[in-house]
Amino acid sequence: MRLAVIEGDGIGREVIPAAVEVLDAFGLEFEKVPLEIGYARWERTGTAMSEEDMEIIKSCNAVLFGAVTTVPDPGYKSVLLTIRKELDLYANVRPVKPLSGVVGVSGRSDFDFIIVRENTEGLYSGIEEIGHDLSWTKRVITRKGSERISEYACELAKKRSGKLTIVHKSNVLKSDKLFLDVCRETASSYGVEYGDMLVDSMAYSLIMHPEKYDVVVTTNLFGDILSDMCAALVGSLGLVPSANIGKKYAFFEPVHGSAPDIAGKGISNPLAAILCVKMLLEWMGKPEARLIDAAIADLLQKKIITPDLGGRASTAEVGNAVAKYIMQNL
């Protein structure tokens, strides 16, 4: 198993080492391939990611990624969008599940749902024209893209409660009618119970009634916005992991950004990055991945937490505590 390890920028350089320590605690055989990609690399060399870097990534099975700062250059091509397209990582998967003792804006802890977002097209198609008086982006919805994301969501739903919610805006965006129709057809063929909601209504309902949902499937931009919004339900962007899944590759990253305002202080919360390790192990079919949940519950109970959660522990101390728990309980 070859794993590309990309710390990236800002707090990525702190949370990824903590996550790697947790991964190492499982004693699995990984060939870890470190790569420097991001804004710091661009500042020094004028290139955030080279073609050679991309080839090295393609030689790996999976990627563990920290965070990247946006390059202040109008000609800059997003590193993340490039990797997603090159590896055809069509499914963005973000679980939204509360951690023991951490309460979000709803004050609830009775929810556990997953947002499955189409990851390669929609308004992130990259087909754009920027002008002085007119700028536009082409929104692309294809049958192929809609079929494979709805199939992924249905397969996930069948492993869980068997319920799917399709989120769209087909009353205004007519291209969404194709997405909605394909998702309905796919759910019917899989025997999955489904419903659909307009994205604006869904945003309200997710905050007010998160316990009603299990697997949510939607288009690229809507999924991006809804999943970031739902971080408020669990208490922080620093607690939410994500996976980008394709037929051949997988890419795991915490939802938070590079947070340059706290970078280098050793206080960033590594739990989202550590939960990315859990998703990586689950993708590999490793049942011991569940130990990470138990380890996090243990350290939360003992208040071994970073300042954002009201504690005094450093990023490294949290990672070390999770790793120790796993080694003691394997």
Describe the protein's architecture and organization.
- With 330 residues, the chain is α/β, with parallel strands linked by helices.
- The chain has two domains: 1-89 and 238-330, Isopropylmalate Dehydrogenase, CATH 3.40.718; 103-235, Isopropylmalate Dehydrogenase.
- It contains eleven helices and twelve strands.
- A ten-stranded mixed sheet has the order 2-1-3-12-11-4-5-10-8-9, sandwiched between helices. The protein has a two-stranded antiparallel ribbon with strand order 6-7.
- It is an enzyme of class 1 (oxidoreductase).
- Residues 2-322 form the Isopropylmalate dehydrogenase-like domain.
- Biggest sheet strand line-up: 2-1-3-12-11-4-5-10-8-9
| Distance linking N and C termini | 21 Å
Count of extended strands? 12
| CATH third-tier fold name of the largest domain | Isopropylmalate Dehydrogenase
> What's the number of structural domains?
2
Concise synopsis of the structure shown:
With 330 residues, this protein is of the alpha/beta class. The chain is 40% helix and 18% strand. Helix 5 packs parallel to helix 6 and helix 10 crosses helix 11.
Features:
Isopropylmalate Dehydrogenase, 3-isopropylmalate dehydrogenase activity, 12 strands, oxidoreductase, 330 residues, magnesium ion binding, alpha/beta, two-stranded antiparallel ribbon, ten-stranded mixed beta sheet, 18% strand, isocitrate dehydrogenase (NAD+) activity, 2 domains
Give a topology summary:
Blueprint: E1 2-8, H1 12-25, E2 31-35, H2 39-45, H3 51-58, E3 62-67, H4 79-86, E4 91-96, E5 113-118, E6 128-129, E7 136-137, H5 143-159, E8 163-168, H6 176-190, E9 193-198, H7 199-208, E10 215-218, H8 220-234, E11 241-245, E12 250-254, H9 271-283, H10 291-301, H11 315-329
Parallel strand pairs: 1-2, 1-3, 3-12, 5-10, 8-9, 8-10
Antiparallel strand pairs: 4-5, 4-11, 6-7, 11-12
